[in-house]
Amino acid sequence: MIRKSEVIFVNDKIEKEFNNLDKNDELKKHINRAIDEIKNNAFCGIHFPKRLIPKEYIQKFGINNLWKYDLPDGWRLVYSITTPNKVEILTIILEWFSHPEYERRFHY
Predict the structure, then answer these.
(1) Banded model confidence at residue 79, pLDDT cuts 50, 70, 90
(2) Less crowded by CB within 10 Å, the N or C end of the chain?
(3) Cα 40 vs. chain centroid, distance in angstroms?
């Protein structure tokens, strides 16, 4: 059974970056589409094995799981899923970046 999820940004800086994107920006449209899909199914992305989660994410955000959503043109959106209680699913957007930035972050 697929449960709906609330989607938030990990911090005000990331939310502000998103809000500062022009409403006609293709990237913003793609991120909005991804958010809508994640709201309907938080598990729609690609799950990273724990060993591949960058230590920076664990230290900075205290996450224990990581998911990737592929956006068009090689962009990536990464997020984590938490369940603050047994009923609610909360998806936390950590960041998005181009494919070269993604490769640097994940050391590919």
Answers:
(1) very high
(2) N
(3) 14
